[in-house]
Amino acid sequence: MRIMLVRHAEPDYSVDSLTSRGWREAELLSRRLIRLKRVEAFYVSPLGRARDTASVTLKKLGAEAEVLPWLQEFRGRAVDPATGKPRIAWDFPPRLFEACPELMLPERWLQTPYFAGTDTPAVWAETKAGMTALLARHGYAPDGVLWRCDDNRRGVIVLFCHFGIAMAIVGFLTGISPFALWHATCMAPSSVTTLVSEEREKGLVWWRCEQIGDVSHLAAADQRPSTAAQFPEIYTGRDTTEPIDWD
User: Fold this and answer.
1) Residue 238 belongs to some domain of the structure
2) Which residues does 201 contact at the CB level (< 8 Å), separation at least 6?
3) Residue 244: inside a domain, yes or no?
């Protein structure tokens, strides 16, 4: 089984949709996704930018995607020790998380002072419960850190979502701190992250991440990936992921 986590194309956050470039990315992405074999289901975040990205592929296939409320962008906040105020848990400057190595540990990140009294534990629990219920539909059930499946197969499920929630899912399924993934990986708009089941013992599955942020569908069309995913490669004085500010 493959789980494909698709980040929405370049967003226009002001209207929760896509930019003109984003619509072009969604078209190129669709050319890749319509060639997939054995797709068992499509799922989508309730947010407009994810639904618009999915719509191009779904229209070509005459298919529908089920909207999963928990698949919206990861909403949890953490306390910024520099200001004492909440900020997005997946958007911390390196100097802040460098001072707390426990954030990178799967069994410790949620117990650090950064998350004390915040909504992140509840959002994390919602994410794990949502993914567990989703995989149960396809025949997978947790068995300790592994997953039990009596009918592991070469099917595919596609989830159109967002970077923060995608890395939370990867962290949950692979036992990696999502905080580490949020700050050490990147998913460009319209990119694909894939997890594949490994059944080395009959009926027991482990999820392995096969690729993160793959944009081969853009490269095939000589389309440069949007930088609406990462901070400047070289210091500009602007701490932003907005492409217009540093591309």
Assistant:
1) no
2) none
3) no
